Amino acid sequence: MSDFTHLNDKGKANMVDVGGKQATHRTARARSIVYLPPAVLEKFLEGDIQTKKGSVFQTAIIAGIMAAKKTGDLIPLCHPLGMDNCHIDIHLNEQQEVVIDCTASITAKTGIEMEALVGASVAALTIYDMCKALSHDIIIRETRLMAKTGGKRDFKKLES
User: Fold this and answer.
1) Is the pTM of the predicted complex or chain greater than 0.85?
2) Is 45 contained in some domain?
């Protein structure tokens, strides 16, 4: 059990004590990929689409940033963090999938990976919500950490 940072020596859940750590600059980038079926994709081939709720991509960006700011409220053992920055980029890739990249940064005693992951996830869910009237065959394929800096060790996923 000692490998899991959120479990104490008795196997009980606990928040990690970061009180003795030094604050460092930390960044994280997470990615979600959304498959759009042809009926939905054709609406995006000329760029973002407008719905009665507003611009799909712009609404997803705002929702993702709002969610990233609330990560400590959503994930039980996450520390509440005041992010220094959060940026979300949304585009179509060569496979005609929607790629959502959420990059978050902070100078703190603990990492910002969960904020980036939550931001990318909620942006993907927002795209689903805004496009579901066209098709329920939308698939959120993956959400993953792509890179992080600061803390004990850096990480970078080799992009394929």
Assistant:
1) yes
2) yes
